[in-house]
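Lecture notes, part 5. Sequence design as translation. It can be helpful to think of inverse folding as translation between two languages: the language of shapes and the language of residues. The source text, in structure tokens, appears below.
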């Protein structure tokens, strides 16, 4: 009899599956850019809709034809520049060297740049959730975003933008590919069937009708349970990053996307917004961080959107 191959269920790539410590995603690396500009942005997830656009993918079956594409709406109020953080080179990578929170502190940064005491400058930015009536919080989310270009170019750019607010239209263009990071929807404690996708036991293997568990935890000897064994535990509320998400539209007129009755569990868009092709992690109102694509794919050109659906999301 042929032996049936049954590989393990579920991926171990993101283990251990613990709750994220913060709803503000942590970006650990940025691509190398020659242009002095912010290498990221942030917004709040609104919901999803669909657009009718011309398929610009080369060698696609529907190339040149109008197709329906699902998109995620993300509201992106301006980011406030609250300060600059300088990093120097340490034995284990970059380490914080100094912070500039006032214009008087910029002179010290200039001296450090001239004496080659620092390696990189990053912006300390705040979001502006108080401009979104649908969000329950009004305190800003704080984060650091890297700046592209050489160190001297970074200094000039930071001096120019210090204390200012930056719109997303100054950072990204329509058709550009980005990486999206967010904390996924939390589901609490779940069993191994939902958490890892293991098979439900058949009727003859169940005990008292309870078959939503694994067959065994391992051998008696050694008396140790390996971490690879699928067990009950936290599901969801993990930080995840999806690469190469395409920006289809950057707009400043909320009437272009607001449906009748607003978006479910969010309300209406009131500020600048972006349309991202496909889905992004997290529920509505969750903070979404953008980053320049670190492994960019081919460029598809300028999106040609013919129609944006504004059909009511209320089920009517």
């Amino acid at each position: 009899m042929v032996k049936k191959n049954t590989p393990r269920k579920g991926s171990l790539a993101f283990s251990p599956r613990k709750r994220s410590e913060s709803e503000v995603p942590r970006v650990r690396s940025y691509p190398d850019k020659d242009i002095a500009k912010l290498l990221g942005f942030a917004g709040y997830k609104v919901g999803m809709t669909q657009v009718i656009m011309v398929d610009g993918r080369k060698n696609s079956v529907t190339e040149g034809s109008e197709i329906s594409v699902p998109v995620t709406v993300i509201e992106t109020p301006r980011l406030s520049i609250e300060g600059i953080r300088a990093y120097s080179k340490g034995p284990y990578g970059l380490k914080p060297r100094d912070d500039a929170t006032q214009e008087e502190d910029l002179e010290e940064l200039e001296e450090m740049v001239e004496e080659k005491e620092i390696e990189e400058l990053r912006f300390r930015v705040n979001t502006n959730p108080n401009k979104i009536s649908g969000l329950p919080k009004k305190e800003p989310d704080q984060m650091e975003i890297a700046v592209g270009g050489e160190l001297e170019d970074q200094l000039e750019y930071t001096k120019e933008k210090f204390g200012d607010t930056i719109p997303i239209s100054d950072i990204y263009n329509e058709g550009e590919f980005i990486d999206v990071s967010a904390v996924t929807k939390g589901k609490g404690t779940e069993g191994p069937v939902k958490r890892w996708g293991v098979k439900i036991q058949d009727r003859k293997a169940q005990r008292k009708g309870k078959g939503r568990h694994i067959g065994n935890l391992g051998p008696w000897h050694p008396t140790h349970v390996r971490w690879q064994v699928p067990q009950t535990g936290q599901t969801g509320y993990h930080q995840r990053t999806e690469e190469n998400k395409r920006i289809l539209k950057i707009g400043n007129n909320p009437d272009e996307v607001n449906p009748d009755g607003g978006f479910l569990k969010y309300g209406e868009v009131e500020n600048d917004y972006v349309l991202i092709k496909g889905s992004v992690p997290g529920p509505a109102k969750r903070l979404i961080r953008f980053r320049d694509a670190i492994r960019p794919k081919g460029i598809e050109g300028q999106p040609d959107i013919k129609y944006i659906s504004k059909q009511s999301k209320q089920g009517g």
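The translated text above is only one of many valid answers, since several sequences can fold into similar shapes. The CA atoms of residues 113 and 152 lie 7 Å apart.
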